[in-house]
# Entry
Amino acid sequence: MNRDQWHSKLGFILAAAGSAIGLGAVWKLPYVTGTSGGGAFFIVFLLFTILLGTSLLLAEFVIGRRTQKPPIEAYKELAPRSSWHLVGILGIFSSCLLLSFYAVVGGWILTYFIRSLTGGLTNPPDGDYSTLFQSIISNHWEVGAAHLVFILLTILIVQKGIQKGIERASTIMMPALFLIFAVLVVRSVTLEGAMEGIRFFLQPDLSSLDGGTILFALGQAFFSLSLGVSIMVTYSSYLSKKESLVRSAFSIVGLSIFIAFLAGLAIFPGVFAFGLEPSQGPGLIFAVLPAVFSEIAFGSVFFSLFLLLLLFATLTSAFSLLEIVVSSASYQRPERRRKAAWLGGIAIFLLGIPSNLSYGVLSDWLIFGDTFFNQVDFLVSNILLPLGAFLIAVFVSWGLKPSTLQDELLRGSSLSTGFFRVWLFFLRYITPAAILAAFLDVLGVW
# Structure
């Protein structure tokens, strides 16, 4: 059976980096950095991303490229007559849940982008952008329509396949994302008083670190690389056997870190330059940044550029989340890709409606004291992703033969067996232990 493949190694790297970057780097990382002590948190995050994130990313690459199959079929081939294929099912389920509320945030971004072009974000009542944000997300017709448009954009790209859809879109969006970021960073760091924000972001204050912050940085490292839901198993299954998995992994991790670095430089100098608090939480982008840009010359233009950047980053991640569903549904029948994309996308849209209404008509519908949106976010980010990451690390490092792993990992690479041994050690012992520690902390075991 002929399967679609990436047209080039660059296309694969840009698409995978786009999946990894997304809201994790541009939306979530800045606000968790702001609420977790700034530079010290960011340094710990970098270390975890390089050491542990890379090891797990390579593990997913090995599964996908070795089998050239989507997750469920891949686990069945590598571990026949076992229950390991449930890890693939877990990944698909987690991706559906993640995209269901991820697309809601994508709709918010789309709404803000349109409003920024039409003047709908200027001069809020009493200058309070937090109140404006709450009024926008509680308008179920506006954010509902934006939610639907975001899902439709995702479906339209994914239905076209790997080369003509995801790869082509990513090779346009990712360079544009870097270009827009460069413009924003230059403007941000040249603001009067910007140096205080740069110091907050890059100068570590080790006194702000504690066990919870360190474990939170670990979770953010995995979230920022789209690990634990077998997305990278799916993407690497389309990769040629001639390519080096190690070089690809380090390229993707490097791009992800670079974007995280640019995101911090684009946001924190402006926040501090205008005397605002960096610890605003999830509303940092929607409630704080509009106030920052409103005080800058041509601020509306820069804010529109920022929202366009955020929209690109969100879409590239959404492509990968829908692709794991479509790839699995159409594996035996590639001609069914279009149908699978539409059915899967619409089903995920319907699944996301309660999240979309969580700040409007369903705001009083609380589950264990919190909104449906926040509970789904918690379930995916703090339970399903760490669980999937733990199982993948155990499966690859203990369930597969070392000779098989070494052959696949070093294929197309000039690296020695010494690198393989170090990687296997991290994957067998360090990565699972770190994930388990973070997982137990989230569950309140210690």
Summary: The chain has a mean pLDDT of 83. Residues 55 and 423 are 6 Å apart (CA to CA).
